[in-house]
Design brief:
Chain lengths: ~350, ~120
């Protein structure tokens, strides 16, 4: 069990800046995120789209913003627990106990939810029957490519992941690439390679087709796809790989007994506390009259939530407001050398 | 003439947009010119459009179907929208992202149908 002053859920810009705000007032924290790296939506949805509304930074990309924040919070040596999701939360005396799906446990008087619009999960196939083959014959990512040797593989999607895996797996398998429209979106050289493989008969391309059913009882044996003009076609298939990007799900947070209003959590704007004492919500996931879903609002919300955490983490101390320009304490915490 | 002109400007009639749910329930609301079809739904508490990314064309959870007679009247779909539509729940030929349809007077009477679900 890891004990700390505050646990931050979500390593997007808001969560990262909360590390900073906790750090300069002398609080320790641990930060948990479902993704495999920090940055949240900024990194996952628009790593290279410029952002123009960060104060004093006329223009930066999501990636630059994330890197800047990571550098800014580095002195506080917060531990990042990536690739895992908080599944369970319960209260013991005055402490919150959290468990992740990787089996890590944390305890702290404060929990700050900076979960954006929830956690990212692969978008699944829409067919009901597909469910029973998920994890055995239907995959949304490739964990072990050795599974695929001399197999019949149907790949769905029109983006880079679909194209890259079609190329890679076509070396040792029979690959059909299926997309709902004729255009693929991918790097030019990848597209050319795929076209080349099609000519050589190594990849079969089916467009514009959609999946209509999967066949088989215990074991999936094939699929049926439908052309835009209605024509049906069956394809023998051992494995389906489907690449339709990521969606955002509120996930387990919805079951923690917090008030939830249209996928967001109402908070008190003085402390950013939710209806549960010691649980705070900041950034896109919180709501209050006048809420703006801006990164800069998330920064402000984190600053106030951090001060509220202080009272619960150090009940016997008095919080004193200090400026970073003048405070010796803050300089020590930041490791500023004279 | 001037009076009429002023009248129209002061009591500007807002375009009516009809949102049809997957099971056929119709909801007609007035949406100010310049907002998107997605925003019109959110402001009027219309179910069926999630808009998780708030209109930054990054989530495809504002997906709608547009009847053919209206589809052709809309601004053409840009590549980025088309790419995002690939990620939508059951996209069809007449699919659009409602956050990319900006309401104008020409769109008065527009009907859009929301899919069974967005994710
Ligand atoms: S609101 Fe996310 S793509 Fe339209």
């Amino acid at each position: 069990m890891i004990k700390t002053d505050a646990i931050i859920i979500g390593a997007g810009p808001t969560g990262l800046f909360a590390v900073h705000q906790l750090g300069i007032i002398g609080l320790k924290c641990e930060i948990i995120d479902n993704l495999d790296r920090a940055g949240g939506q900024c990194i996952e949805l628009y790593p290279d789209k410029p952002i123009y509304d960060i104060p004093a930074i006329p223009e930066c990309t999501g990636e630059e913003l994330t890197n800047g924040l990571l550098k800014q919070v580095a002195p506080f040596k917060a531990n990042f627990h990536l690739n895992q999701r908080v599944e369970e939360i319960k209260k013991e005396n005055n402490l919150w106990i959290l468990k992740t799906n990787k089996g890590n446990a944390f305890s702290a008087p404060n929990v700050i939810i900076a979960g954006g619009v929830g956690s990212f999960e692969p978008r699944k196939l829409t067919l009901k029957e597909a469910e029973k083959f998920e994890g055995s014959q239907i995959f949304y990512s490739v964990a072990n490519k050795n599974l695929f040797q001399n197999k019949k593989i149907s790949i769905f999607g029109g983006g880079d992941s679909a194209l890259d895996w079609a190329l890679e797996l076509s070396k040792t398998n029979q690959v059909t690439l299926i997309h709902r429209r004729a255009e693929f979106r991918g790097a030019a050289h990848t597209l050319n390679e795929v076209k080349q493989k099609e000519k050589e008969g190594k990849i079969l391309i089916k467009t514009p087709y959609n999946l209509t059913s999967v066949e088989g009882d215990k074991i999936m044996t094939g699929i049926e796809i439908k052309h835009e003009d209605g024509k049906l076609e069956k394809i023998k298939t051992d494995y389906i790989l489907s690449f339709f990007g990521l969606i955002m799900k509120l996930g387990p947070i919805a079951e923690w007994g917090l008030n939830i209003d249209k996928k967001t959590i109402p908070v008190n704007t003085e402390t950013f506390q939710t209806n549960k004492e010691g649980i705070f919500a900041i950034g896109d996931i919180c709501t209050y009259p006048g809420k703006l879903k801006l990164i800069l609002s998330g920064f402000h919300e984190g600053a106030l939530a951090a001060r509220a955490c202080f009272k619960r983490a150090k009940p016997n101390e008095t919080y004193r407001f200090e400026f970073t320009t003048a405070s010796k304490n803050i300089h020590d915490r930041l490791g500023v050398k004279k | 003439m001037l009076a009429l002109f002023l009248f129209i400007h002061i009591f500007r009639i807002m375009p009516k947009i009809t949102y049809i749910s997957h099971d056929g329930k119709k909801n007609t609301v007035e949406v100010p010119v310049g907002l998107t079809v997605m925003e019109g739904a959110l402001q009027n508490n219309i179910q069926g459009i999630d808009a998780d990314c708030g209109g930054s064309m990054a989530c495809a959870t504002c997906h709608v179907y547009v009847p053919e007679n209206w589809y052709d009247k809309l601004e053409k779909v840009q590549d980025a929208e088309q790419d995002m539509l690939d990620m939508a729940y059951e996209p069809k030929k007449n699919s659009r992202l409602s956050c990319q349809i900006i309401i104008s007077d020409q769109l008065d009477g527009l009907e859009v149908t929301t899919p069974i679900k967005q994710t």
